Amino acid sequence: MAALLEVTELTKRLGNFTLENISFSLAPGYIMGVIGVNGSGKTSLLRTILNLYQQDSGSIRIAGFDMNTSEKQAKEIIGTVLDEDFFDETLTPEKNAAIFGPFYPRFDMDIFREACKRFEIPLDQKVKKLSRGIRTRLQFAFALSHRAKLYLMDEPAGGLDPRFRRSLIGCMQELVESGERSVIFSTHLTEDLDKVADYILMLHEGKVQFCLDKEALCQNYRLIRGTKEEIESLPKEQVAGKEHSMYHSEALIRTSPGNPSGGQNYPAPKLSEILYYLERGYSQCGN
């Protein structure tokens, strides 16, 4: 199946920070989560995909459209939920939709109104009076109204209360059920990814550390608890990250057929644990 999003050898320099040689793809019908600590490049990656930051090299294709040569056609397919939205703050959501909707050939005002009703967005209040969480919901409602195929979201759950966070996760799952649409979103809330993501892309200092099927990723690691001596005796090449405290010692290990223990008798870690120990491993190695 042809990729809905294809990023190839993407590089973007932003001051002292660089997104370096990023490559991955996302087929229709899947959800990809982008993880990494602050400063790893999550927001920069999404903004570069959207051509808000023009890449220095590499290519970005959306449903076959090259973002450099066919930006208009590519962006007609994309729905966004970002920190900063494009709405006119002096106007109501409905008037904003009437102004910006016609830029998208597939825009449908009825779908917009239905989405606003579902997400409890007041149609008659000026945007500047809406809370951050409601403005996030408004972006999502607009993306649904022009029937986007690729949804790019930067920390979409930020500012949402638990009820609407759950609703957002449900909407993401509904979006991809037909096998025609996909979602890529960055988040610090790895518990959301545990529930909904098919693939996980991890960034560290502007580089892709892995882009894997979530289930395969969790099977690639095990969390071992024991004494400090037991943890320190593990083969160094097997340890992705470790921690010693007053009460316990534990390590995230890489599992493979060649590992002495294989780690199969130990629990599979959560995504939050994988992210935590991988980042600890980078710092412990002096990265």
Give the overall form: globular
CATH superfamily of the largest domain, please? P-loop containing nucleotide triphosphate hydrolases
Q: Could you say what the CATH topology of the largest domain is called?
A: Rossmann fold
Number of domains: 2
- Major beta sheet summary: 6 strands, mixed
Supply the CATH class of the largest domain. Answer: Alpha Beta
3D architecture notes:
The protein is an alpha/beta fold and 287 residues long. The protein has 2 domains: 5-216, Rossmann fold (3-Layer(aba) Sandwich); 220-284, no CATH class. 32% of the residues lie in helices and 27% in strands. It has helices at 42-49, 71-76, 93-100, 109-118, 132-145, 162-176, 190-196, 214-219, 228-232, 271-284, and strands spanning 5-14, 17-26, 31-35, 57-62, 65-66, 78-81, 150-154, 182-186, 199-204, 207-213, 221-226, 239-244, 249-254. The strands form 3 sheets. The chain has a 6-stranded mixed beta sheet with strand order 6-7-8-3-9-10, with helices on both faces. A hairpin with a 2-residue loop joins β4 (57-62) and β5 (65-66). α4 (109-118) runs antiparallel to α5 (132-145). The longest helix has 15 residues, at 162-176. The two termini are 38 Å apart. The mean pLDDT is 89.
